[in-house]
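Quick check before the chapter quiz. The format below is the same one you will see on the exam, so make sure you can read both the input and the output lines.
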Amino acid sequence: MRIVRLRADSEEMYSDTGSDYEDSSDDETIEQAHEPDFGILFDVDGVLARGLNPLDPAIRAINKLKDSEGNMKVPVAFVTNSCSRSRDKAAMLERWFDTPVSPEACIHAPTPAKLLTSFHNKHVLVIGQEHRKEIAEEIGFVNTCTVEDVRRAYPFLDMVDHENRRRVSVGNFSDNLNFKPVEAILLIGEPKRWESSLQLLIDLLMTEGKPTKAPESLSQVKQLPIIACNMDLVFMAEACMPRFGHGAFLVCLEALYKKITGKALEYEALIGKPCEITYRFAEHTVAELAKKMGIKRHIKKLYFVGDNPNVDIVGCNLYERFLKDSWINRRNGNRNNSINRTLPRSRSIPSDVALYEQTVTSMESLLVGTGVYNPEKESETTIPEDKVYHGHRDIAHEPELATPTRYVEDVDQGISYILEKEHFTITT
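Here is the expected output.
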């Protein structure tokens, strides 16, 4: 490992090339020189596992990152667009790979919503499936309700459910006028019953969170803030073809809202891959993990191993662009995060968030062929421009962004590539 100077002022870390630090043997010990100054981010589904079963190449890959005591020697985080409790994901990864994994190392689609502190105390409707209220609480939302709560409070709304239609027609039901208005909507994952959730979401959006009276004019209705986590149209599980993801549910919601109101649905924030806020939060997480591991060097490079060109790889390339623009912006003396001006409002990063200082200057993406991407059907080097675009409407279709830094057959090959490129050897 070459020796580098670590400077306290991060503005000076960015070199003229935009991707390196200045070499020096004065400011760093020999011990630090043998510490990693890079981190690795893994997608899970399609990279490390298919469904609930780890892939054999993933087991070999993780073993290459462990020392003789089974501990990771490189700061690693798991960045997935799935939605579950962090402690559950950490426990599963520990079982799969026989190595300690902290819940903080598990970044799910909703996790970066920890940064949206202005919404944490509002009365928020959480859409998802199992543990959705607990997950929302884990990331800071303390006053939440569910679709089931809304259905009980307003029993006449859900008429797509014929059983509910028959039930209310013969019973003595009325709206619960004491039910607190919904102030924001947190979409952490697709619900079980799309039709009922879509109906109630439209009702709340058209009535500013209190669906007891029809709006007199839709043009005068102020749309509730919507935080959407995970824009994946599809994901890869055990089936032979990709399955509908949360992005498919968002497409339905957007289309219904547009059809009924004539207005485009607006998002307060888009969270999860491929949005920049997720990769910025991942950089923060890797820096925190490195500090806990006793690594004194700044993390200057990130690698991401993913299986979905339109999600993982696009996100990496968007963040690489963000990094370059951000460092240029800071070198020019602007430290107020005005780089957000280049991002759509729904993808902006709050300027007042508590994150470790940005030290990463470059990011590489590795695309594997064990998940969504099928190398037998598609070119390894380019994504055809006429390919159907599966990305979210708030992320411009730029086909070149779906091209990885490198294609590898599986994650094991990817880790070998990273360790060789970084000239990093782990003593076992």
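If your answer matched, good. The CA atoms of residues 308 and 372 lie 5 Å apart.
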